[in-house]
Write a structure and sequence with these properties.
The protein is of the alpha+beta class. The chain is built from 10 helices and 11 strands.
Length: 296
């Protein structure tokens, strides 16, 4: 059981967890020798993740409490022994499903890592993906936590081996080819053009009305098309995109204050708030785990 200060049964993570509200802790990091993999081990009680998506895959094992994940088709829940699987770019939220919160060990393998493993061990054609979001699979959940333990011990050989075993078994049990995207409708094409504008003008984006006028449509039609294509309205998507870009800047060594300005946040506190909500740890802690530098 987790206690205040980040200690828990089985030993604390290799680095001090990020100080949080009472009973909460989190560590989001990478292990040397494991390219293409991010790791998160955390316990959350009051923290909730807003709508966001990931470039790669998400695989987590709930070790205590209950996690509630909000998807377009509804909310799914996983308790101890349950695993959650999300494909790239799946918009979702996450929060505690019970008052005492939840603890979990999460793996974020890149699309390249999963594709490589799928090519070696399955006959899947096309892009591999998970056909289920939640499964009761305590043994696989245990293997996911073992990836973390090996990585925290600095044993990249064991961690990499266990990671490949985990992904291979997940694909065999719950995997399949992701659906091929159908030809884009006029609304989807408009949404894609809007997204390109927001990416290009991230630091000084137009208003919804201005953007719609530039694209030759109405604000409501654009809002509806964008939500249909990307699962969230343009302003929510832009915040998520800013945080994703800030992550890359922090990984390259930028200070949080520099990253905040570079992605269009008005100041570092705004980056801190949105980054912590979406990633689960503050930008300073995220940067330290990847660069070894002290926070700015």
């Amino acid at each position: 059981m987790v206690t205040t200060g980040g200690q828990h049964e089985g030993g604390a993570p290799g680095a001090d967890p990020t100080p949080r509200a009472r009973g909460e802790w989190a560590r989001h990091w990478r292990c040397a020798g494991l390219p293409g993999l991010d790791l998160l081990r955390a316990r959350y009680v009051r923290h909730s993740f807003p709508r966001h998506a990931h470039d790669g895959y998400v695989v987590c094992a709930v070790t205590s409490g209950v996690e509630a994940v909000g998807l377009g088709q509804g909310t799914v829940r996983a308790g101890r022994g349950g695993i959650i699987m999300l494909n790239p770019e799946v918009v979702h939220t996450a929060r505690a499903g019970v008052p005492e919160g939840w603890a979990y060990a999460t793996l974020y393998p890149s699309s390249e890592v999963v594709a490589e493993i799928a090519a070696e061990i399955t006959g899947l054609r096309g892009t591999p993906g998970f056909g289920e979001t939640v499964a009761e699979d305590p043994h696989l959940g245990h293997l996911i936590t073992e990836v973390h333990r090996a990585a925290e011990a600095g044993d990249a050989l064991a961690a990499d081996s266990l990671l490949r075993i985990v992904v291979a078994r997940l694909l065999r049990r719950y995997g399949g080819p992701l659906p091929v995207r159908t030809p884009r409708s006029a609304g989807a094409r408009t949404a894609a053009r809007a997204r390109a504008v927001l990416e290009e003008r991230m630091t000084d984006p137009p208003s919804l009305e201005q953007l719609a006028r530039e694209l030759g449509t109405s604000a409501f039609a654009l809002l509806r098309a964008f939500r249909g294509a990307y699962g969230m309205p343009p302003h929510t998507w832009l915040t998520d995109a800013r945080v994703r870009r800030a992550r890359r800047l922090l990984e390259a060594g930028s200070a949080p204050a520099e990253a905040a300005v570079a992605v269009g946040f008005s100041d570092q506190p705004h980056l801190n708030r949105h980054f912590t909500r979406i990633v689960g740890v503050p930008p300073g802690a995220y940067r330290r785990e990847r660069s070894g530098r002290e926070p700015a």
